[in-house]
Amino acid sequence: MKQRTIKKVIFIKGKGLHTGKKIQLKMLPAIKNTGIIYRRVDLFPNIEFNMNIDMISTKVPLCTCLENRQNIRIYTIEHLNAAIAALGIDNVIIEVDAPEIPIMDGSASPFIFFILQSGIQELEEKKKFLKIKKQVSVYEEDKMVQLSPYEGNVLEFTIDFKHPKIKKKFNSFSIKFSTFSFIKEIGSARTFGFTRDIPYLHSLGMALGANFDCVVALNEKKILNKEGLRFKNEFVRHKILDAFGDLYVSGYNIIGRYTGFKSSHKMNNKLLKLLFKDEKNWEIISYNSEKNVPISFSYS
Predict the structure, then answer these.
(1) Which of 18, 79, 238, 265 is catalytic?
(2) Among this protein's residues, is 238 annotated catalytic?
(3) pLDDT at residue 211 in the model
(4) What CATH superfamily is the domain 2-126?
(5) Fold of 129-292
(6) Which of 187, 204, 269, 297 lies in the 20 to 30 Å Cα band around 116?
(7) Distance separating alpha carbons of residues 30 and 15, to the nearest angstrom
Protein backbone atom coordinates (compact mmCIF):
# COMPACT_ATOMS: atom_id res chain seq x y z
CA MET A 1 0.00 0.00 0.00
CA LYS A 2 1.27 3.45 -0.94
CA GLN A 3 1.56 6.70 1.00
CA ARG A 4 -1.06 9.38 0.40
CA THR A 5 -1.39 13.14 0.23
CA ILE A 6 -4.13 15.50 -0.96
CA LYS A 7 -4.50 16.33 -4.67
CA LYS A 8 -5.24 20.05 -4.42
CA VAL A 9 -4.73 22.95 -2.04
CA ILE A 10 -7.58 23.27 0.47
CA PHE A 11 -8.76 26.59 1.97
CA ILE A 12 -10.83 26.58 5.16
CA LYS A 13 -12.21 29.41 7.29
CA GLY A 14 -13.46 28.98 10.81
CA LYS A 15 -13.22 30.06 14.42
CA GLY A 16 -11.06 28.98 17.34
CA LEU A 17 -12.85 27.08 20.11
CA HIS A 18 -10.56 28.54 22.74
CA THR A 19 -9.42 31.90 21.30
CA GLY A 20 -12.80 32.68 19.78
CA LYS A 21 -11.00 34.40 16.90
CA LYS A 22 -11.46 33.94 13.13
CA ILE A 23 -8.96 31.52 11.61
CA GLN A 24 -7.83 30.81 8.06
CA LEU A 25 -6.33 27.40 7.33
CA LYS A 26 -4.68 26.09 4.18
CA MET A 27 -3.75 22.46 3.46
CA LEU A 28 -1.02 21.80 0.90
CA PRO A 29 -0.05 18.57 -0.89
CA ALA A 30 3.30 17.17 0.25
CA ILE A 31 5.87 14.77 -1.23
CA LYS A 32 6.55 11.29 0.11
CA ASN A 33 7.97 10.92 3.64
CA THR A 34 7.13 14.52 4.54
CA GLY A 35 4.80 13.50 7.33
CA ILE A 36 2.27 15.87 8.87
CA ILE A 37 3.54 19.42 9.25
CA TYR A 38 1.64 22.18 11.02
CA ARG A 39 2.89 25.65 10.10
CA ARG A 40 1.93 28.85 11.93
CA VAL A 41 1.93 31.61 9.34
CA ASP A 42 0.77 34.26 11.82
CA LEU A 43 4.37 34.38 13.07
CA PHE A 44 7.44 35.74 11.29
CA PRO A 45 9.40 33.79 10.45
CA ASN A 46 6.79 31.06 10.08
CA ILE A 47 7.07 28.30 12.68
CA GLU A 48 6.83 24.63 11.61
CA PHE A 49 5.79 21.72 13.80
CA ASN A 50 6.84 18.37 12.32
CA MET A 51 4.26 16.31 14.15
CA ASN A 52 5.77 13.63 16.41
CA ILE A 53 5.46 12.50 20.03
CA ASP A 54 8.43 14.60 21.17
CA MET A 55 6.40 17.75 20.45
CA ILE A 56 3.44 16.78 22.65
CA SER A 57 2.71 19.37 25.33
CA THR A 58 0.24 19.21 28.22
CA LYS A 59 0.32 22.96 28.87
CA VAL A 60 -2.98 23.63 27.07
CA PRO A 61 -5.85 21.70 28.73
CA LEU A 62 -8.82 20.04 27.01
CA CYS A 63 -7.05 19.42 23.69
CA THR A 64 -3.91 18.04 22.07
CA CYS A 65 -1.09 20.51 21.69
CA LEU A 66 2.30 20.56 19.95
CA GLU A 67 5.08 22.75 21.33
CA ASN A 68 8.59 23.49 20.07
CA ARG A 69 11.74 24.26 22.06
CA GLN A 70 10.93 27.98 22.02
CA ASN A 71 7.60 27.26 23.79
CA ILE A 72 5.55 28.15 20.70
CA ARG A 73 2.43 26.05 20.37
CA ILE A 74 -0.24 24.85 17.99
CA TYR A 75 -3.27 23.26 19.62
CA THR A 76 -6.75 21.77 19.16
CA ILE A 77 -5.30 19.60 16.40
CA GLU A 78 -7.18 16.40 17.30
CA HIS A 79 -10.22 16.72 15.00
CA LEU A 80 -8.18 17.56 11.91
CA ASN A 81 -5.72 14.82 12.87
CA ALA A 82 -8.62 12.36 13.07
CA ALA A 83 -9.85 13.34 9.58
CA ILE A 84 -6.35 13.01 8.10
CA ALA A 85 -5.78 9.65 9.78
CA ALA A 86 -9.21 8.31 8.79
CA LEU A 87 -8.47 9.01 5.13
CA GLY A 88 -5.00 7.50 5.33
CA ILE A 89 -3.19 10.77 4.60
CA ASP A 90 0.51 10.40 5.45
CA ASN A 91 1.89 13.66 4.07
CA VAL A 92 0.37 17.14 4.22
CA ILE A 93 1.36 20.67 5.20
CA ILE A 94 -1.21 22.60 7.23
CA GLU A 95 -0.83 26.36 7.36
CA VAL A 96 -2.84 28.29 9.93
CA ASP A 97 -2.86 31.97 10.93
CA ALA A 98 -3.55 31.31 14.61
CA PRO A 99 -2.30 29.21 17.53
CA GLU A 100 -5.15 26.72 17.12
CA ILE A 101 -7.04 24.81 14.44
CA PRO A 102 -10.62 26.03 13.72
CA ILE A 103 -13.25 24.03 15.57
CA MET A 104 -15.75 23.99 12.64
CA ASP A 105 -18.92 22.18 13.86
CA GLY A 106 -17.05 20.41 16.68
CA SER A 107 -16.48 17.21 14.72
CA ALA A 108 -14.15 15.86 12.04
CA SER A 109 -16.80 15.83 9.29
CA PRO A 110 -16.05 19.26 7.74
CA PHE A 111 -12.36 18.38 7.40
CA ILE A 112 -13.22 15.00 5.87
CA PHE A 113 -15.53 16.74 3.39
CA PHE A 114 -12.88 19.24 2.29
CA ILE A 115 -10.23 16.52 1.88
CA LEU A 116 -12.53 14.33 -0.20
CA GLN A 117 -13.43 17.36 -2.33
CA SER A 118 -9.73 17.93 -2.97
CA GLY A 119 -9.11 14.29 -3.77
CA ILE A 120 -6.45 11.89 -2.52
CA GLN A 121 -3.18 11.31 -4.35
CA GLU A 122 -1.08 8.16 -3.97
CA LEU A 123 2.69 8.58 -3.82
CA GLU A 124 5.43 6.24 -4.98
CA GLU A 125 6.45 5.11 -1.51
CA LYS A 126 5.15 2.39 0.80
CA LYS A 127 2.81 3.50 3.58
CA LYS A 128 4.14 2.84 7.07
CA PHE A 129 2.05 1.57 9.96
CA LEU A 130 2.66 1.51 13.71
CA LYS A 131 2.06 -2.06 14.89
CA ILE A 132 1.50 -2.65 18.60
CA LYS A 133 3.53 -5.66 19.81
CA LYS A 134 3.04 -5.47 23.58
CA GLN A 135 0.24 -4.17 25.78
CA VAL A 136 0.87 -0.72 27.25
CA SER A 137 -1.44 0.95 29.80
CA VAL A 138 -1.76 4.22 31.70
CA TYR A 139 -3.83 4.49 34.89
CA GLU A 140 -4.96 7.59 36.80
CA GLU A 141 -7.28 6.93 39.75
CA ASP A 142 -10.31 5.15 38.21
CA LYS A 143 -9.32 6.08 34.65
CA MET A 144 -7.47 3.87 32.19
CA VAL A 145 -6.17 3.93 28.63
CA GLN A 146 -4.46 1.08 26.80
CA LEU A 147 -2.94 -0.07 23.53
CA SER A 148 -2.68 -3.80 22.87
CA PRO A 149 -1.85 -6.11 19.94
CA TYR A 150 -4.59 -6.73 17.39
CA GLU A 151 -4.45 -7.56 13.70
CA GLY A 152 -6.50 -4.59 12.55
CA ASN A 153 -7.56 -1.44 14.38
CA VAL A 154 -10.26 -1.48 17.04
CA LEU A 155 -11.19 1.51 19.17
CA GLU A 156 -13.36 1.07 22.26
CA PHE A 157 -14.30 3.62 24.88
CA THR A 158 -16.42 3.95 28.03
CA ILE A 159 -17.54 7.23 29.59
CA ASP A 160 -19.13 7.75 33.02
CA PHE A 161 -20.83 11.13 33.43
CA LYS A 162 -23.46 11.62 36.12
CA HIS A 163 -26.09 13.37 34.03
CA PRO A 164 -29.76 12.50 33.35
CA LYS A 165 -29.27 12.82 29.57
CA ILE A 166 -26.20 10.59 29.42
CA LYS A 167 -27.71 7.14 29.91
CA LYS A 168 -25.57 4.23 31.11
CA LYS A 169 -26.68 2.06 28.20
CA PHE A 170 -25.04 4.61 25.86
CA ASN A 171 -21.79 4.89 27.84
CA SER A 172 -19.75 2.37 25.84
CA PHE A 173 -19.00 2.03 22.15
CA SER A 174 -16.58 0.05 20.00
CA ILE A 175 -15.66 0.30 16.34
CA LYS A 176 -13.49 -1.78 14.05
CA PHE A 177 -11.78 0.95 12.07
CA SER A 178 -12.12 1.41 8.35
CA THR A 179 -12.39 4.72 6.54
CA PHE A 180 -16.01 3.94 5.70
CA SER A 181 -16.95 2.98 9.27
CA PHE A 182 -15.20 6.03 10.71
CA ILE A 183 -17.00 8.45 8.40
CA LYS A 184 -20.35 6.79 9.10
CA GLU A 185 -20.05 6.10 12.83
CA ILE A 186 -17.52 8.51 14.35
CA GLY A 187 -16.57 11.46 12.13
CA SER A 188 -19.68 13.58 12.73
CA ALA A 189 -19.79 13.16 16.54
CA ARG A 190 -19.35 16.62 18.12
CA THR A 191 -17.41 17.87 21.09
CA PHE A 192 -19.47 18.52 24.20
CA GLY A 193 -19.28 20.41 27.46
CA PHE A 194 -21.12 21.44 30.61
CA THR A 195 -22.29 25.00 31.26
CA ARG A 196 -21.11 24.74 34.88
CA ASP A 197 -17.50 24.67 33.62
CA ILE A 198 -17.71 27.83 31.48
CA PRO A 199 -16.77 30.43 34.15
CA TYR A 200 -13.66 28.47 35.11
CA LEU A 201 -12.63 27.88 31.48
CA HIS A 202 -13.11 31.56 30.64
CA SER A 203 -10.91 32.48 33.60
CA LEU A 204 -8.17 30.43 31.91
CA GLY A 205 -8.78 32.11 28.57
CA MET A 206 -10.32 28.88 27.23
CA ALA A 207 -13.60 28.08 25.43
CA LEU A 208 -14.03 31.72 24.37
CA GLY A 209 -15.41 30.56 21.01
CA ALA A 210 -17.76 27.89 22.37
CA ASN A 211 -21.37 28.11 21.22
CA PHE A 212 -24.18 25.89 19.98
CA ASP A 213 -22.70 25.84 16.46
CA CYS A 214 -19.63 23.89 17.58
CA VAL A 215 -20.39 22.32 20.97
CA VAL A 216 -23.11 20.10 22.38
CA ALA A 217 -23.90 21.98 25.61
CA LEU A 218 -25.45 20.48 28.73
CA ASN A 219 -26.71 22.15 31.90
CA GLU A 220 -27.53 20.12 35.01
CA LYS A 221 -30.73 18.70 33.52
CA LYS A 222 -30.75 18.70 29.73
CA ILE A 223 -29.05 19.17 26.37
CA LEU A 224 -29.38 22.81 25.35
CA ASN A 225 -28.87 22.50 21.57
CA LYS A 226 -32.26 22.72 19.86
CA GLU A 227 -31.36 20.05 17.29
CA GLY A 228 -30.39 17.56 19.99
CA LEU A 229 -27.90 14.77 19.32
CA ARG A 230 -26.72 13.25 16.04
CA PHE A 231 -26.48 9.83 17.76
CA LYS A 232 -28.00 8.65 21.02
CA ASN A 233 -24.45 7.89 22.14
CA GLU A 234 -22.79 10.88 20.49
CA PHE A 235 -20.73 11.65 23.60
CA VAL A 236 -18.80 8.37 23.69
CA ARG A 237 -18.43 8.40 19.89
CA HIS A 238 -16.76 11.79 20.14
CA LYS A 239 -14.35 10.42 22.73
CA ILE A 240 -13.30 7.80 20.17
CA LEU A 241 -12.85 10.55 17.57
CA ASP A 242 -10.62 12.49 19.98
CA ALA A 243 -8.55 9.42 20.81
CA PHE A 244 -8.10 8.55 17.14
CA GLY A 245 -6.79 12.05 16.45
CA ASP A 246 -4.58 12.03 19.54
CA LEU A 247 -2.95 8.74 18.54
CA TYR A 248 -2.13 10.08 15.07
CA VAL A 249 0.43 12.40 16.67
CA SER A 250 2.61 9.28 16.28
CA GLY A 251 2.49 10.01 12.53
CA TYR A 252 1.17 6.54 11.69
CA ASN A 253 -2.08 4.65 11.39
CA ILE A 254 -2.07 2.03 14.12
CA ILE A 255 -2.38 -1.73 13.83
CA GLY A 256 -3.67 -2.58 17.29
CA ARG A 257 -6.49 -2.15 19.80
CA TYR A 258 -7.17 1.05 21.72
CA THR A 259 -9.21 0.91 24.93
CA GLY A 260 -10.19 3.98 26.94
CA PHE A 261 -12.10 4.22 30.22
CA LYS A 262 -12.91 7.78 31.30
CA SER A 263 -9.60 8.84 29.76
CA SER A 264 -8.58 12.20 28.32
CA HIS A 265 -6.32 13.89 25.78
CA LYS A 266 -3.65 14.07 28.48
CA MET A 267 -3.83 10.32 29.14
CA ASN A 268 -3.79 9.50 25.41
CA ASN A 269 -0.66 11.61 25.06
CA LYS A 270 0.97 9.87 28.03
CA LEU A 271 0.09 6.51 26.48
CA LEU A 272 1.89 7.35 23.24
CA LYS A 273 4.99 8.49 25.08
CA LEU A 274 5.00 5.34 27.22
CA LEU A 275 4.59 3.16 24.13
CA PHE A 276 7.64 4.65 22.42
CA LYS A 277 9.84 4.39 25.52
CA ASP A 278 10.53 0.73 24.73
CA GLU A 279 11.13 -0.47 21.17
CA LYS A 280 9.85 -3.91 22.18
CA ASN A 281 6.36 -2.42 22.38
CA TRP A 282 6.05 -1.55 18.70
CA GLU A 283 7.40 -1.82 15.19
CA ILE A 284 7.00 0.13 11.96
CA ILE A 285 5.76 -2.07 9.13
CA SER A 286 4.67 -1.78 5.48
CA TYR A 287 2.63 -4.00 3.17
CA ASN A 288 3.48 -4.86 -0.42
CA SER A 289 -0.17 -5.10 -1.37
CA GLU A 290 -3.24 -3.24 -0.15
CA LYS A 291 -4.98 -6.63 0.03
CA ASN A 292 -2.70 -7.60 2.91
CA VAL A 293 -3.45 -4.51 5.00
CA PRO A 294 -5.75 -5.54 7.91
CA ILE A 295 -7.67 -2.23 7.78
CA SER A 296 -9.53 -0.70 4.84
CA PHE A 297 -9.13 2.86 3.59
CA SER A 298 -11.97 2.61 1.10
CA TYR A 299 -14.56 5.37 1.61
CA SER A 300 -17.21 4.24 -0.87
Answers:
(1) 265
(2) no
(3) 97
(4) lpxc deacetylase, domain 1 (3.30.230.20)
(5) lpxc deacetylase, domain 1 (3.30.1700)
(6) 269
(7) 25
